[in-house]
Amino acid sequence: MSTGVKSWISQALLSAVWCLWQATCSADLVLEVSDVSIPYGGTGFVDVFVYSNATPGDFLAAWDMTFEIIGPVTNGSLDFDSTQDISGIASPVPYVFYGNSGSYGTSSPANNPPNPDLMFSDFTGDSSDVSLVHNNRYLLARISLVHSATRGSLAIGDQFTVSLVDSSFTYDLLGSVTTTPYNPTLSFTVFVTAPEPSAIGVLLPGLGLAMWLRRRRQRIAGQSGGMD
Prior knowledge:
Blueprint: H1 3-6, E1 29-32, E2 36-39, E3 43-52, E4 57-70, E5 78-80, E6 105-107, E7 117-123, E8 130-133, E9 138-147, E10 159-164, E11 170-173, E12 176-179, E13 187-193, H2 199-227
Parallel strand pairs: 2-13
Antiparallel strand pairs: 1-3, 3-9, 4-7, 4-8, 4-10, 4-11, 5-9, 6-7, 10-13, 11-12
């Protein structure tokens, strides 16, 4: 856990009830993710959004959470990619601490499980509470993924699950630091698809056809000239 976030966790932990965005929610904060397809040997990303269903809203000052990649573990062809800094994103959905990010970043927990995992965290730069307007979506994290071409074409069609590690989401609402299971488990599926044909691969067959047609016209023209 980053030093900045640790500084927030000095008060009693409170329990809360959590739910997926598709479910009926009784909690104040709701997380939202979606499935993604990435090309074989390519990259992609999934955004994690947060919103408050409390009225009139909530106040967030710090957060951290850990995601892990679950199977098929045996081929190990999916991993977390280098993470881009999203703290400067203002649209179409603004980063939750836009303009007041203390240190958005990632790290690998010391007690790594068998599966690849990555922790995301941030806190407000001025230690203030940021207002989350009721039902407004905010960008919380961007999970960058990379697929390694380790198994040839056999990897096409592979499916991976990326899941929020149980009890890993810690947040600070108005000075009350909470760590709680997210129930049911928050996760999304990564589908590995066939790569798009390269531009050169599309162009070369066309060039071959054009050259064949040109030679054919030349032969026909030569035959016509010989009959005169």
